[in-house]
Amino acid sequence: MPTSAERRAVDAPAVSPRADAPPVAGAGVISIRHLDKTYDSGFQALKGVNLEIRRGEIFALLGPNGAGKTTLISVVCGLVNPSGGEVRADGHDIVRDFRAARSLIGLVPQELATEAFATVWNTVSFSRGLFGKPPDPEHIERVLRDLSLWEKRDSRLITLSGGMKRRVMIAKALSHEPRILFLDEPTAGVDVELRQEMWELVRGLRNSGVTIILTTHYIEEAEEMADRVGVINRGEIILVDETRELMRKLGRKRLVIQLETPCATLPPALTSRGLELARDGHELVYTYETHDHPAIADLLEELRQAGLRFHDLHTEQSSLEEIFVSLVREDR
């Protein structure tokens, strides 16, 4: 039996393609313009969101709880009606051309909504049929094997572990061969081994041309996997950038210098350098922006002239999580 979300995806009001709304050439595979969503309670979950998702990229959408991530995904996937603005999936308007847009999209939601007594094979095959796709046992087998579900194909979902049920949710989303895949917290509550397997699958999908949009609380995953990162807070997109560029521009580096002899106070000649003593004077820490490219050699020469000797040094760079926390704090 289909879940309530799946029924909405298939039975939601859809208007046939209009001649005055053709696909937009050259636009991102997902194009969002001035998107608003206000619920009946009066809460405005999305405020004028503008976003372009490029074809074939892995895009990580980050934000604190309640920031609007799930609402944004739900609008794009046709599960929540927008209050204003426009969303197109590969050029198809998600309201005026609902069926064509939705057929391009696979969604792995946060909740494990599955029919408890159905088998894995029947559940995934049924999801394919919901999108009007003809039976394709070879494709279903390939998906199940890729997700290490083949041995469980005849098992009822009620007998599966949480991690296995999460795999089934991904298999259902891939059953109709979507070109756009939304992963809403896909690795929440799964073990490390399964998480690594999932990301290998995600990389393979991206390499085959599938566009991946994910939300995650494991920010190290976004840092490792995503081509670009978008940060949403209080219903507004506050930043979108290439992951590496974001790290370069907003990341900070720390040069940690381990002294041969502890230093109680900084020599006067070094006070303007912004150095900090750490570990009871055993270390000097110099923090700088990654794009500043400070003259480390000059700093070390100044240390020598001040009579400070060191036996080791290393650099540390701020993580994407630290950048994210900083951005959200500044947006308050």
TrEMBL record:
Residues 1-10 have a biased composition (Basic and acidic residues). PROSITE patterns: ABC_TRANSPORTER_1, ABC_TRANSPORTER_2. Keywords: ATP-binding, Nucleotide-binding, Transport. The keyword Nucleotide-binding applies. It holds the Pfam family ABC_tran. Residues 30-259 form the ABC transporter domain. This is Multidrug ABC transporter ATP-binding protein. InterPro entries: AAA+_ATPase, ABC_transporter-like_ATP-bd, ABC_transporter-like_CS, ABC_transporter_ATP-binding, P-loop_NTPase. Gene3D superfamilies: P-loop containing nucleotide triphosphate hydrolases. GO terms for molecular function: ATP binding; ATP hydrolysis activity. It comes from Sediminicurvatus halobius.
